[in-house]
């Protein structure tokens, strides 16, 4: 058996966690929800590489490790490289028959934050996707460099207040748009690319299983709400993620073979983006009268993007 | 030292950073930290209490001192939906054979996510002050809220 049952939560909960507690992520951090879910949706052996980021520095604080699988600690940019090289070595040794257990199934996964995926590790990731290794790259997108004090990254959305794009009398925060990493990865011709969110646990587990089962490089962008830098109460992590998916700030969809787009979650009532922005401290300044145009711009961007996704889903090209 | 729900002796014995550390140059086999003592094949099919955790595994450490409020679990109301299990960021919900058993207070940081996602009425998980005994908290449990139209 390779993948575990995700028919309902009760069956899903019979899996034995391979990501241990007492890691030093903030209380209420969504990173560990996503990691736990990935590790519970398969019972294969996993080889995991992590880019430097919150996840990596908090789960391997010497003398402790929170990982019950093989885990590689590597530089800021090259988890994709580490995972793809481990995969190449595994294939070569399997061919030669020099593995301890030649039949044991192994899956290769790389984790990166948005800083290391969108910015610093982009070239490495692009290279690994192009070479076509059989691995899954998961981006834990919390929209800033949370590990080093909340600097802006190219994943930070327009209008957010970060420590290097501060809002004040002369600025409304970050002025540039967020990079569409999912489209970029789909353009590499990757067999499976998706954007998923931890509040929809089933679509997320399904997506992870699809990515692990698919031969070839898969990319998944996951929304990871950051209590510290988005400035909300730790208990509201799932609530904020709900708002993110229901306002379509983070639509949940997958792209198969670079062209076949499927929308995985359609909110029954699409909420206004003000609900999402107002729940977080980093957008507080946008509700001043002089910054009204930024909210309008965010809303129109969301509407355009949703229209584009729906049309692409219909067109199947 | 607390024994908790799992009742094994390899639990909650240390506070992170408070123990005698091995120097970075004394770690055996380069810079590998083994999560388990001995063979670790087929770990996905072993429950936490059956695993042979090494001293390097964060499972044997505790972050209980981070907490100022703690979740208290009321077995009588719980419907075993496992929402708290899937969204707990700290692997602190102990769930075996589709049943929710309790909270792992050595690993819980008191974020309160489990209480927010609990669907029962009244909630079967509620946050209380760390100083309060669980028995006292259970006695103070609120009544079922009536629906207001």
UniProtKB/TrEMBL annotation, chain A:
Residues 150-169 have a biased composition (Polar residues). CDD domains: TPP_PFOR_porB_like. InterPro entries: PorB-like, THDP-binding, TPP_enzyme_TPP-bd. Its EC number is 1.2.7.1. SUPFAM superfamilies: Thiamin diphosphate-binding fold (THDP-binding). Gene3D superfamilies: 3.40.50.970. Keywords: Oxidoreductase, Pyruvate. One of its GO terms (molecular function) is pyruvate synthase activity. It is an enzyme of class 1 (oxidoreductase). Residues 150-173 are annotated as: Disordered. Residues 52-221 form the Thiamine pyrophosphate enzyme TPP-binding domain. This is Pyruvate:ferredoxin oxidoreductase, beta subunit. The lineage of its organism: unclassified sequences, metagenomes, ecological metagenomes.
